[in-house]
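User: I'm putting together a teaching handout on how multi-component assemblies are represented. Below are the sequence lines for each component of a complex, exactly as they appear in our records. Could you produce the 3D structure of the whole assembly as structure tokens, so the students can see both representations side by side? Please keep the chain order the same as the input.
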Amino acid sequence: MLVVMQAHAAPDQVRAVCQKIESLGYRAHPMPGAERTAIGITGNKDALEPGTLDEMPGVQEVIQVTKPYKLVSRDIKQENTVIRFPGTDAVIGGPGLAIMAGPCAIESREQAFAVAERVQRAGAQFFRGGAYKPRTSPYSFQGLGEEGLRIMAEVRDRFGMRIVTEAIDNESLELVEEYADVIQIGARNMQNFSLLKRAGRSQRPVLLKRGMSATLEEFLMAAEYVMSEGNYNVILCERGVRTFADHTRNTLDLSIIPAVQRLSHLPILVDPSHGTGKRNKVTPLSRAAVAVGADGLIIEVHHQPDQALSDGVQSLYPEQFDELMAQVRQIAPVVGRTVSPIGIHTPAAAIPALPSGTHPVAPG
Amino acid sequence: MLVVMQAHAAPDQVRAVCQKIESLGYRAHPMPGAERTAIGITGNKDALEPGTLDEMPGVQEVIQVTKPYKLVSRDIKQENTVIRFPGTDAVIGGPGLAIMAGPCAIESREQAFAVAERVQRAGAQFFRGGAYKPRTSPYSFQGLGEEGLRIMAEVRDRFGMRIVTEAIDNESLELVEEYADVIQIGARNMQNFSLLKRAGRSQRPVLLKRGMSATLEEFLMAAEYVMSEGNYNVILCERGVRTFADHTRNTLDLSIIPAVQRLSHLPILVDPSHGTGKRNKVTPLSRAAVAVGADGLIIEVHHQPDQALSDGVQSLYPEQFDELMAQVRQIAPVVGRTVSPIGIHTPAAAIPALPSGTHPVAPG
Amino acid sequence: MLVVMQAHAAPDQVRAVCQKIESLGYRAHPMPGAERTAIGITGNKDALEPGTLDEMPGVQEVIQVTKPYKLVSRDIKQENTVIRFPGTDAVIGGPGLAIMAGPCAIESREQAFAVAERVQRAGAQFFRGGAYKPRTSPYSFQGLGEEGLRIMAEVRDRFGMRIVTEAIDNESLELVEEYADVIQIGARNMQNFSLLKRAGRSQRPVLLKRGMSATLEEFLMAAEYVMSEGNYNVILCERGVRTFADHTRNTLDLSIIPAVQRLSHLPILVDPSHGTGKRNKVTPLSRAAVAVGADGLIIEVHHQPDQALSDGVQSLYPEQFDELMAQVRQIAPVVGRTVSPIGIHTPAAAIPALPSGTHPVAPG
Amino acid sequence: MLVVMQAHAAPDQVRAVCQKIESLGYRAHPMPGAERTAIGITGNKDALEPGTLDEMPGVQEVIQVTKPYKLVSRDIKQENTVIRFPGTDAVIGGPGLAIMAGPCAIESREQAFAVAERVQRAGAQFFRGGAYKPRTSPYSFQGLGEEGLRIMAEVRDRFGMRIVTEAIDNESLELVEEYADVIQIGARNMQNFSLLKRAGRSQRPVLLKRGMSATLEEFLMAAEYVMSEGNYNVILCERGVRTFADHTRNTLDLSIIPAVQRLSHLPILVDPSHGTGKRNKVTPLSRAAVAVGADGLIIEVHHQPDQALSDGVQSLYPEQFDELMAQVRQIAPVVGRTVSPIGIHTPAAAIPALPSGTHPVAPG
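Assistant: Of course. Below is the structure of the complete assembly, with chains in the same order as your input.
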């Protein structure tokens, strides 16, 4: 922490601030400058509440310096976290891109199978689909619930893809972790700390979407919540933020990919479907996401988008997804990445084995 | 809904869109213009998914017209919702301003009583305080939990104020509704639809804070979630939104007060403490909130802000709150409002009676 | 400036950064902490380019501390700047609120006089109106140009109000300073530094509107541009910023009023007409602006808003402006302000005298 | 335009709105729906001011439908605009990517030549550099002015690159068009309509940067200003927008590339240097920009970034630019693009010939 004094601050005021700092058990480092004095503070095991100093006479500003995240940070663990799913070639955070695809919501067994067959063949290792849908309106389709989870489990058995689906509260998380391979926490719940802690006590990896107005620090702190409960297999996901721009539903912030990779060892995916909200923008932004260095993509695909019960406007037709994968395959090598070959049918074990992450970091 | 065709759209394309609309059970109203044709759609009981038409040949844009909210709307109920708390003079939505004040978090019985005594005396009818704190960091103070609720119940018995406190998940909501008079849903949970539905099944009024990047429509739809479960006593609260501006923690959007009042019958308060995040901005913005026409204020006050366990930087000293109330008392009459007189001690019944709202609107 | 080193930064790296700092003529203050070392920098007459240190090995972050503004700051001049217009009671920055009102654009002599007569009678001391209109579309009405300025000069002669009008480039500024009393620089030109410098060489006061996405610091720096050329009579104006919120055209950020007043001696007005873009929000937000402590208001009024050539949707009817003034009159005393009495007709001198500001600060 | 009536609007109110519309010379198309009536308006040669109808009794909302841009639109000209520079292989908007590179500011002949030599060799066809710098602070280096332009002209003669540099007002534009090949209008001047019109009367192509908070429509309307004066050679450039996100200086909005390409025939470049403000993000975002489909890049390169007089923190080292170009070369073919081969030295004519665009669209 750094305290910046006003230009006219009296020596007494500087002294008083230093004494206050020392009285709280920290060390004060006054630095008289040409115009004003700044006072550095060290020894802060816990973050000092800025309120303590902010309003003292002569104080102009208190600047937070220490970052509050620990377990997510490369300071704790330098090498990338890689999440493996035993018995399959599905890997997140390794050299191969993780490709997740499927419908916004599971609507029926027929629909799920029709989409799964197509995305698996195109090279997706993960099948995404919603059983519990957080919808802006209480009158919109809210998902099939457990029935949807059961259908996804069948998709896994049949097509050998790993299952990714969203939990929206502790009750649904209970069921999701029973049926699925990856638990998704949606953007609207990124700071639902109760849900994050519950996910942190699960043994399934957690796919954490960035909140609509989350800063990088808040995003990492949400991951820290999950990790602080012992679950180190967290996958971050950029899905667009809210801005004034109205040509897309959200503004996809691809610059957060290298920013996360600099600070954290966790893998990060991109969701261009929600990130743009428009079908015709999904493929260009998927190319860009791979080019920027993302660890994978999560894409909405529907075999009949114009009859989808939700998000039809942003779902790709299966042929469009084929084309997207063809383009992504060409870009991946430029950034040192590989993409799974076009779908060889590899049925997985019926019961999802737990992932073997690179975890047991012993947090200091 | 309105479909805008491209300038060069062929008559065939217009016809195809009209046929598609009719085939879905709606009525199409083509309107040929000087430059392009627009097609109005009526009869849409349910919102038509725009995805159906968006990508048809010749279509430029699909514009949503119908608003999705019903129960929150003045279309359903024209007169203002007024929430009364039997046995006290605490009212929300009536001519008297509802004043809620108290510490960010309940830290101890001593602290709660010290603050309560001061804010009650200054004219607050409601005591706010957190027992469950949604903190950005898992390592920050998370609240006293049920112990905090018990202290607040004592405050009610002793000082006659109604209690407002936040629930952060279904478990804590269970306890909050047992101890408190008003259940707060925080900004981070504004789209935690599972929690909103649970609050909708409670008999306590719900104070719903605007999410950090919520549009007016999303805000009203969150209230609609609560009401759609049968709880019509919803109080909205503006608490600042996230913008690029960095001179305050959030940007307090006071223009939403008249905007809400135009569309909805629900009362709306302002929280200038979170809305600015800076102690020296709380009083000016409180004056502005009353002047713009808000139904009340919710203010953080602490008897020792520099030792607060959370949000000390934005908590008022009790004397500052006295001053704030003195100023608010002068502005209220200009907008046809009254403020409770300076604290006559009126102890309330030990067990909180249920509020008697103006509800049972029979939604059409 | 403060350099924060990485947690694992080697002593050598810390030393190298310190040497670099010293080699640039500054002083380095290393502060070893529990987790990492921070290095304070003093002696920076000119701002040190952060690029110099940002990418040195072991550096995590470089934090700018020193504020770049000087002349606008209370560090240089503690008492408020008050701008007087000799021969009238029009004052900006004093205890009386400065009220500016008039149409968006001057459309004709008849229109200008019709509006002027009404706003003068209601208590406005300044007549606003555009002769040069910055319109989003090149095909929209662009203003009457010099003819509009001439009409405004007649309004001054006839109604005794001081004239405020926008200059959009160096050419129009030349004319504006000849005819008008206050030169307005619009939001879109807030960082048109060439125009700011030209305005800084004028002898007329400058009304500087905040840019649509300007931070407080950028806003103050724009004023610094004007002042750095010798014109100390700058009036700031908040007029809404761009956010995701769509219930108003812009989001009026009233918290910037106390923020500016804390840092700067310059007066600051509020423009709720552009700040909301909706007629029915202008009066509530005007009340709020006065309550928050603004030094005045600038309001669009038109005698026939539904026939206005621009911005009709946000212009008040004259009766609405009367009502606004009546309400503002009641709020002003709460914040220690007065409002001009209802229009006594005081014709001003035909040729605008130069304002006598409190300037000649001798910038140190 | 579409008028949405309130749910309870009386038939009389609907009738009155229709009559008003017809009285203004437009045609009204009332569409009674299940809940409310909407009224379509056609025949609007000029945009009808929404203010006319917005506040009529029973009106809920007025929705603008017609887009105000004409010349920029694919409705007027379907094929892409391609801008050629006779005597060189520099082309913007064709299959080859346009690569512009150089220092933020021209500091000296030595510096300019040192950078030019490197970027030309790496494959840039355009040399960028500022002679007039719009700096946030009046005390920062403001550029060398005409001396800088002269140095750039020498760079053209020597290295055969086309010159791109910013004009900040009508005076500097006069000089810029004399010396340079492309006139840049910076983000801060995107709505400096006076400057846009002046640029529209120039015979040089104009590189128009997106304003920090410009919507797609405002961006296109700014281009429309230039074109409406007869200059059809406009190049758009995305350079990041202002959001709450603080991990980069601006948020680069790559989704605007396909959005522009859908609506307009104008070429669009990406500036990842300003778009991120951080050297280590420039290369990843450059890859992404090419992958998303941009027509080219504009990149800040400095041979000694840590001694740059401006923007050193975001300037690439020449070796980093080599590496960027190597990566871009691999991605380009995926999106059907080519990149100039590594620098064959092709000195251009001393006097810049005018570009031969694909213009003379005869705007209807």
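A couple of points students might notice: Confidence is low (pLDDT under 50) at residues 357-364 of chain D. DSSP finds eleven helices and 14 strands in chain D.
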